[in-house]
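Aim 2 progress. For 4-hydroxy-tetrahydrodipicolinate synthase, the working sequence is reproduced below.
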Amino acid sequence: MSIEWKGVFPAITTKFTAADELDLPLFEKNLQAQLAAGIDGIILGGSLGEASTLTTAEKETLTKFTVEKVAGKIPVVVNIAEGATRDAVQQAALVKKWGAAGIMLLPPMRYKSDERETAAWFKTVAASTDLPVMVYNNPVDYKIEVTLNIFDQLQELPNIQAVKESTRDVSNVTRMINRFGDRFKILCGLDTLALEEMVLGAHGWVGGLVDAFPAETVAVYRLVKAGRIKEAVEIYRWFLPLLELDLYPKLVQFIKLAEAEVGLGSEYVRAPRLTLEGAERESVLQVIRTAVANRPVLPDYLSL
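Predicted structure tokens for this construct:
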């Protein structure tokens, strides 16, 4: 399956049971809600998917299960985050074998590569596969920036097609478009900047709170792209306190709590993460429950 790299791509959470095993029935419940809401693709095993705690066997199970359930309706993209280039190349081969349609590729983990090394990393992994690749550019969390000069070098790889833009600088959308035109599709990777970046020309949104609120997320995207900015902004203003849960180190726990509150997930996380408790949990619950109590009535966004 080719990937258009536009629209809403949830970075879906990995559902666990109380016994710390994959909860595939609950995962499917969320997945079906995402499909019904009109998402355009899905990303497995990202930061929200607790990738660093998943075994290769679990990634295989999740990927094959998702590919089967979406039945070709949307592309399934798998995150690759490794410390060694050869391991990333091996993961790319496995991802294709499992049936994924594309890869989201992080820069090297644990080692802060320089510009030459970072470019070589992306080029080597991309050259090893024919799967479409989305570069994840998040220098705030991962300490390595994929600069414009690096993207200039990556142009030679036709399967490097998109970027998950998480620099926290909305102007970077304009810089990318000014420099490369439509060569790289841009998907906003930070919930709190999604509307702004889409107005500036970003093609899509890799979402976090979409895991709990898929319809509202897709509605904002489609309204913006239809030029109905005022309606999108009204929903976005309601959404913002929820979207800000994506900004914290405990975003996984926060978003899983939101999923549990709306019946699309559970609070179970994998250690070393622990479920929320006490005043912290109550504070997050207040944000979620206030938003749910005031949930907006959405227009017929699916017809846009």
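The chain has one domain: 7-303. This observation will guide construct design in the next reporting period.
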